[in-house]
Write a structure and sequence with these properties.
The complex is a heterodimer of chains A (107) and B (123).
Chain A: E1 4-7, E2 10-13, E3 19-25, E4 33-38, E5 45-49, E6 53-54, E7 62-67, E8 70-75, E9 84-90, E10 97-98, E11 102-106
Parallel strand pairs in A: 2-11
Antiparallel strand pairs in A: 1-3, 3-8, 4-5, 4-9, 5-6, 7-8, 9-10, 9-11
Chain B: E1 3-7, E2 11-12, E3 18-25, E4 35-41, E5 48-54, E6 59-61, E7 69-74, E8 79-84, E9 93-100, E10 110-113, E11 117-121
Parallel strand pairs in B: 2-11
Antiparallel strand pairs in B: 1-3, 3-8, 4-5, 4-9, 5-6, 7-8, 9-10, 9-11
Classes of the chains: A mainly beta (107), B mainly beta (123).
Chain lengths: 107, 123
């Protein structure tokens, strides 16, 4: 089975900082990767799919990149409302697998 | 606006069967051949996909849970359901239902989620 590994597991950054989260697949998954945002006590929300396409309504400070095994979620100019745990998810096959999550906090 | 709502017992005894239902409103589970899935999240931990079903009853399950999972749908009531047998404390989690974003195929992201329901396994 393909494993999804996120790093770091947590980070603390200042408002306005650029934040980068990495997701690595143990085998190539083309660009079949999604990112979700889960705010504390809330439901996961789809942010990005096919590695780099923003879901409707998602602020443009969020961006995704990558293909194959290495993917990145970037938050340009971190805002207080971005405090959340972010998960990557592969969907290259009928076995959906999530990464372990990255918790983003404000310094 | 599509809405999903989980329902079922919040407490299940070890070795028994966990049963949850997801009721869909604002759209029909029979329209568009979408897959409808279950995901769980143990307290303080990450997300795990359990499995998915479409309107015709075609299912895909996570191999790690396949021996204990059954999903079925009730199109007349616009619902789909999860049964997880022989539960242990490790099955304690918030259980979410969700819709797959693209019609026909299960290998897609999940774009609409229910609010989730906490199920605790304890005697």
């Amino acid at each position: 089975d393909i494993q999804m590994t996120q790093s770091p597991s947590s980070l603390s950054a200042s408002v306005g900082d650029r934040v980068t989260i990495t997701c690595r697949a143990s085998q190539g998954i083309s660009n079949y990767l999604a990112w979700y945002q889960q705010k504390p006590g809330k439901v996961p929300k789809l942010l990005i799919y096919v590695a780099s396409t923003l879901e409707s309504g998602v602020p443009s400070r969020f961006s995704g990149s990558g293909s194959g095994t290495d993917f990145t979620l970037t938050i340009n100019s971190l805002q207080p409302e971005d405090v959340a745990t972010y998960y990557c998810q592969k969907y290259d096959s009928a076995l959906l697998t999530f990464g372990g999550g990255t918790k983003v906090e404000i310094k | 606006q599509l809405q999903l709502q989980e329902s079922g017992p919040g407490l299940v005894k070890p070795s028994e069967t966990l049963s949850l239902t997801c009721t869909v409103s604002g759209g029909s589970i029979s329209t568009g051949s979408y897959y409808w899935g279950w995901i769980r999240q143990p307290p303080g931990k990450g997300l795990e996909w359990i499995g998915s079903i479409n309107h015709s009853g075609s299912t895909y399950y996570n191999p790690s849970l396949k021996s204990r999972v059954t999903m079925f749908r009730d199109t007349s009531n616009n619902q789909f359901s999860l049964k997880l047998s022989s539960v242990t404390a490790a099955d304690t989690a918030v259980y979410y239902c969700a819709r797959h974003a693209v019609m026909v195929i299960v290998a897609t992201p999940l774009d609409y989620w229910g609010q989730g329901t906490l199920v605790t396994v304890s005697s």
